[in-house]
Structures are given as C-alpha cells and as structure tokens.
Amino acid sequence: MLACGVDQITSGPDISGISIDTRTLAAGDLFIALSGDHRDGHEFVQLAEKSGASALLVSRGTDCSLPEIRRENTLDGLWCLGEAGRHRMAGKVVAITGSSGKTTARSWLENMLNQQAKTHASIGSFNNHWGVPLSLARMPRDTEFGIFEIGMNRPGEVEPLSRLVNPDVALVLNVLPAHLESFDNIDSIRREKLSITRGLNDDGVLVVHENIDLEGVSHNNIVTFGYSESSTVSAQVSFEKNMTQVHFTIDCKKYGFQLPTCGEHRVLTSLGCLAVVYALGADLPRACESMAFMEPPTGRGNLLEVSGRFIIDDSYNANPVSMRYAIEALCQFQRGRKVALLGEMLELGDEAKQLHTSILDACGELDGVITVGEGFANAKQHLGDIHWGHHASAADINLIELAESLKEGDTILVKGSNKVFWVNNFVEALHSALS
Fold it and tell me: Cβ distance 145 to 120 under 8 Å?
C-alpha cells in the first residue's frame, strides 16, 4: 500500500507481478487501471479478475470482488511503484536515450550483462511515462544490473523519467532529426536528450557519442565513444563480407570484436554499449566476446533469408539519419541486387520535403528503389531508371509481383516510419509471398 503512495496500512493479497494490460496479465498480478486518451483501464477490471488478477489499483469503485487500492490518479500510483522498485534494488542502473537504436542497445546490453550477473531490463519499447515506471516496478530486489530505455516525443519528457530511473550510467546514443515537428530545431532535441543527466547519481557517468555538443551539461564524469583518438572508446572499423570487424582502445588497452551485421549505425551502437560496460566496471573482454552473437531486435535491421533471397527488416521506424545508415549498410552487402523499399518519414515538420529528397540522393548505388507515402511522391524524377515504382500506402503494393521481381541472391531493405510498414505486419506478409 505504501509503495502505491497510499498512507494507510492494511493487510492485502499476495501480489506476484504488475500489469496494465489484461492481454498479458498473469495470475497474481496487480492490475492498474490507467486512463489514456482513447481507453479507460477501468473498463477492463472484470476481465482482469477473470484472468487471475489478485488486486486492483483504481481511481473509483468497481463491481469486482478483488481487493482495491484507491488513488485519485492511478498513473501516480504506478510511478510510486516504480520509485519503490528502484529504491529497493542495490545494484547498478543504466538509462538509455537517443533518436535511434535505443531498443537495440537495451537488448544488447541485457544479453551481455546477463552473462555476468542477474540483469533486469525493460521489454519491447516500454520507454514512456507508462512503460518506464512499469519496468521499474517489475524489477526484482536482487537485480544486479537494471537497464531502461527513455524515449520522448515532445519537450519535457526525458528529465522526469531519468529522475525516476536515477541511473548510475546514462547513455545518449545519438541526436537525430526525429520528432522535429514537436521541437524548434535539432538543438532543442539535443537539449532534451541531454536532460537525462539531471537524473544521474552524483557520481554517475554520462556515456555519449563524441559528436554530441555538451553545451549546457554540468555533469563532469563523462565517457565518450566514436572514431576519433580523443574519444574514451576510440574505434577502427573494417567492413567485410556481411560482417564487421571492430578494434577499439580504452585506457590504452586494445580490444576487438566482430559484429554479425553491417552498417556504421550498428558499430556506433555496439561502441555505446561497450562504453556502458566500461563505465559500470563490468567484464569488458567477456562483453566483447558476446558481440559476435548480437542480432538486432525484430524490425531493427534483422536479416531474413527466404528461398535464396534476403530481407533486411528495418521496418520498426525511421528518421533521415537512420534511413541513410540503413541504405549504406545495404550497399555493403556483397551479393545479388540491392533494392530498397522506403516508406515516408513522419513528424519531420517544415523540413520534411528537403529531408526526403536527401534520402533519394543517397540511393545512387542501389539497383532498385520502391517508395511509399506522400513524402516520396516525387521519387521518380530524382531516381530515374532505378525507381521501381511509387505507392500511396504499403497496402497498395502487390506482394506477389514484388516477390517475382526479386531474383535469387537479391537483398531488399524495408525501412520507414512505424505507421508505414511495422503496424501493418508488412515484412511478415512479404516473407510469406517470397516463400
């Protein structure tokens, strides 16, 4: 009860977990009825009871027979639970932010550190004002490493989430032109990302890409990563056949690892992760050994082979820089033709037209480009003969014809904003058409 921010102390049921979604609720969970813009969690309390919930956190009375904890604002109750989860854990905590690559970094760090100690991490993209406190609330007391994503769509979101997580290490992967329509300019995005430092412990470490301007950051304990010799983690890279060899230096000591993927963005993500391992004081050589087995999470650049043809599934989301990185990675593949299926990039504000054009200009080395959405409406005049067609939406693409156009050995990249391909399970449908 106290963990929920309720003063009175009464006996209650045993609670084995926390849930805000009846679709994933497990028996014994406390069900928190959150109210959003479109749905009210109180509509699902009966379903939560049928699914085996042990208690409810609600803002008003219900017809259920389950014990109830009352808060005027149930989201405040969830934040109290998240704060309690953080304070009961004596291990070290990492917070990750950036315009691109957060989930990949979180997944890779979780896999690396879990081989060294008990590790708890957020799942999926639980990186907002609901997902972060929920992930903290679910963290076991004996966790030795906790890893949490912090995302944002508009100003003022990162700092309060960072203060809640109270990290020992904060990783800022990058600052890219994503969600530009909600910010004045790219520098506003930079300041928002770097506000993660305000939640750091006094002796915590900021891990940041070498090219990010640190103006306005008062924190002094900083680890940088990148390609220049002045970076704390300084790397040299060679791209070989469908893999990457990385050598880097920390404290005058040399290390190396292989990545089973191509692309500069993957290299930078891996360097950011290893810089975090260094900042935590964890086993760096062991973490390097783990890198050889790291694949991106689904939709973040996975390589799928289907009947002798290949799909790079990067369909989860896109911004101008991540899309350019994905195209560069496609160009590094040394087999068959290279085809990009590009969906428009959303939330770019007044710079949308210019930024879409810059992506088309980056496609010159490809064998074919298919475009989707209004942002790429003028693709034909920029691409000429390598433009294989334009579609208003992904649903308009004839998957059978597309599959028949791809020859053995060809690789097709699928990349676009979340609403273009990912939410429509497009890659799954393309995979079936190619089978």
Answer: yes
Rounded distance between C-alpha atoms, residue 194 and residue 207, angstroms: 11
Residue-level pLDDT at 168: 98
- pLDDT at position 392: 96
Copy the structure tokens of residue 171.
Answer: 């990783």
Tokens at 49, concatenated: 């009871």
Cα 262 to its chain centre, rounded Å, is: 18
Cα 367 to chain centroid distance, Å, stands at: 30
Q: How many other C-beta atoms are found inside a 10 Å radius of the C-beta of residue 394?
A: 24
CA torsion sign for 412, 418, 420, 421 is positive
> How far apart are the C-alpha atoms of 149 and 96, rounded to whole Å?
5
Q: Which amino acid is at 79?
A: W
Q: Is 14 helix (H, G, I), strand (E, B) or coil?
A: coil
Q: Cα dist. 32→27, 28, 47, 83, 432 in Å? A: 14, 13, 12, 16, 38
Q: How many CB atoms sit inside 10 A of residue 222's CB?
A: 14
Structure tokens at 364: 């010159």
Sign, CA dihedral 86-268-331-354, equals: positive
Q: Residue 217 has what pLDDT? A: 93
Domains and CATH numbers, the chain: 2-72 (3.40.1390.10), 89-291 (3.40.1190.10), 302-434 (3.90.190.20)
Displacement of CA 221 from its chain's centroid (Å): 25
User: Residue 4 has what pLDDT?
Assistant: 60
This prediction has a pTM of 0.86
Q: For residue 9, what pLDDT is reported?
A: 43
Q: Which of 346, 344, 337, 330 is nearest to 309 (CA)?
A: 337
Low-confidence ranges of the chain (pLDDT < 50): 1-2, 7-9
Q: Which two tokens stand for residue 6?
A: 């309720």
d(CA 198, CA 208): 15
Q: Are 325 and 317 in contact (CB under 8 A)?
A: no
Contact between residue 232 and residue 244 where contact means Cβ atoms under 8 Å apart: no
Closest of 231, 186, 235 to residue 210, by C-alpha: 231
Pairing of strands 243-250, 253-259: antiparallel
